Amino acid sequence: MKPLLEVDQLHVSFRTYGGEVQAVRGVSFSVKEGETLAIVGESGCGKSVTARALMGMIPPRSGQVKSGSIRFRGRELTGLTKLEWQQVRGSQIGMIFQDPMTSLNPTMKIGLQIAEGLIKHRKQTKAQAKEETLKLLARVGIPEVARRFEQYPHELSGGMRQRVGIAMALACHPQLIIADEPTTALDVTIQAQILRLMKDLQQQLNTSIILITHDLGVVAEVADHVAVMYAGVVVESGPVGEIFDNPRHPYTQGLLQSVPRLVAGKKERLIPIDGTPPDLFRPPAGCPFAARCPFTMEICLDHMPQAKTYFDRHEASCWLNDPRAQRAESWMVAGRETHV
């Protein structure tokens, strides 16, 4: 069976006064039906730019999908016109934004904002759209739906607004939902509720999800597959269990070492990743993580390693995994010791 979504060698750049920013540089991944893919990495690594490219939301005045392929159910999306993208967004691919206070229209009642998509994409009457909207609000756990239908975004709490955002994304029954850091602006208790809600709705509707996040705790909770991005490149990807238990890239290991773990009777100091990401005006010729990596070799600076497949879609791009690398054995030992 073919994947629902296939992204192959995607390149996205932005034009600025200082030059061209190569924000996404050859990203490839796929998403199966009913699967949750988490794209993780630190701020500025290209996660959100990738998500917006999948929605056709790169601003044409400053940005451009320079090359690569985005295939959804076998259909190429990169060459779609503005009108064709409008037919795809919402009805086939939905999006949950990071901050619902800025993504929701502050001048429109929330009920009308959800109903708008039903009227446009599913050709419902206003009465039918209102009835469907009330059902959606109840489905995402909002009480007193008739009263909430008439309220404006500023009258709702952050958690309620995010539930409205989820209802909007689900309204037209899309096969794929892109959630761009949907819990970042919420407190821990509400985060858990939103994640549980998304997981339950996915199981009920068999919807695929791409989750953009920097929180590895969230990844462990909801994801099936993980893609680790750094400086516009996917440096490692694989099933969530493989990535957590057997990381094959130093950046992935660094991310895992910076996450606090609860171990009874044992105190552990968090290990930060020293240094800063490379300048994407002038990306490095070799591995983008080489300047920060404690295992850097000469070849890392000059040549980008090819992705190597290990087990069940587990891939990593790192010269340390090359059998010719002198430090390959010690690197793998260090990785296992870290995650025992």
Automatic annotation (TrEMBL):
GO terms for cellular component: plasma membrane. Transmembrane segments: none annotated. It comes from the Bacteria. It holds the Pfam family ABC_tran. It is found in: Cell membrane. Its main location: membrane. Keywords: ATP-binding, Cell membrane, Membrane, Nucleotide-binding, Transport. InterPro entries: AAA+_ATPase, ABC_Ni/Peptide_Import, ABC_transporter-like_ATP-bd, ABC_transporter-like_CS, Oligopep_ABC_C, P-loop_NTPase. CDD domains: ABC_NikE_OppD_transporters (cd03257). Residues 5-256 form the ABC transporter domain. GO terms for molecular function: ATP binding; ATP hydrolysis activity. It is a peripheral membrane protein. GO terms for biological process: peptide transport. The keyword Transcription regulation does not apply. Belongs to the ABC transporter superfamily. This is Peptide ABC transporter ATP-binding protein. It comes from Brevibacillus fortis. The lineage of its organism: Bacteria, Bacillati, Bacillota, Bacilli, Bacillales.
